[in-house]
Amino acid sequence: MPQPRILVVDDEERIRRLVRMYLERSGFSVAEAEDGNEAVDKALSEPYSLIVLDLMLPGMDGRDVCTQIRQHSNVPIIMLTAAGDESNRIHGFELGADDYVVKPFSPRELVMRIKALLKRTGEVDYARNDLNQTLTFPGLSIQIDARRVEVDGNEVSLTPKEFDLLVYIAQRPDKVFSREELLRDVWNYQFYGDQRTVDTHIKRLREKLGQVSHSVSQYIVTVWGVGYKFEVAS
Q1: Are strands 154-156 and 77-81 parallel, antiparallel or unpaired?
Q2: pLDDT digit string, tens, across residues 163-197
Q3: CB under 8 Å to 129, separation ≥6 — which residues?
Q4: Top-confidence residue, 232 or 50
């Protein structure tokens, strides 16, 4: 298996060097970018397993970088920033980020989050289920091993977390999941109680499915005061 390749984008050389050291110790190949324009050029010209993206960059900031990358790629993105308030986190998720790490951060925690996210994008393992299969519902096909979603025969491009979330709830139709359960099982770690992370991903998932078929987007049902479930009308 080739080494996972990580692009680290930060205008501080000290942080890039620190993150590179920990990632290389963990067996990753690392490339660097120090500003937004360089980050977009590298992200769209070379294949990466994951991007660690600083929010505050000179010139084009991390939000704009994320937006441009998402127009062409669903590569996993972890936002890295000193702006850790809830509104900044939610906005980052709305732009397509998969995770958010606040400065000052633990390099070990960052590596753990990278590994958890890459595990989801590679060989997803949900509670001993056989994932070499396709989940089929009226108008919706989820090819788990190929990580491909089709609505009415049209492929829908999802980010890694959007895909994992859809698979997780679709494998258990009619089961109601709390936000805490989804954070624990789909994100694979405690996410500091930020339950709006789930809400943001559910919103984006519905929007993407709904662009092709409104009826398919309605499979994802909000259970008020509890969480969400996947429901196919009989």
Answers
A1: unpaired
A2: 999 999 998 888 899 988 888 888 765 545 567 88
A3: 171
A4: 50
Hey, what are 53's tokens? 């993206």
pLDDT at residue 129, as a whole number: 38
Around 54, how many Cα atoms within 13 Å sit in the side-chain half-sphere?
26
* CA distance linking residue 63 with residue 165, whole number of Å: 23
Residue 230: CB atoms within 10 Å:
21
CA 68 – CA 167 distance, rounded (Å): 26
* DSSP result, 177-188: EEHHHHHHHHSS
- Distance CA(152)–CA(130), nearest Å, equals 25
Give bridge partners of residue 137 from the DSSP assignment: 140
| Residue 125 pLDDT greater than 60, yes or no | no
> What's the whole-number average pLDDT of the chain?
84
Non-local CB neighbours of 167 within 8 Å, separated by 6+ positions: 124, 126, 131, 135, 142, 144
% helix, strand, coil for the chain, step of 5: 40, 20, 40
142-180 burial, b at 16+ Cβ within 10 Å, e below that, comes to bebeebebbbeeeebebbbbbbbbbbbbbbeeeeebebe
The first and second tokens of residue 142, run together, are 């989820």
Tokens read off for 120: 């989801």
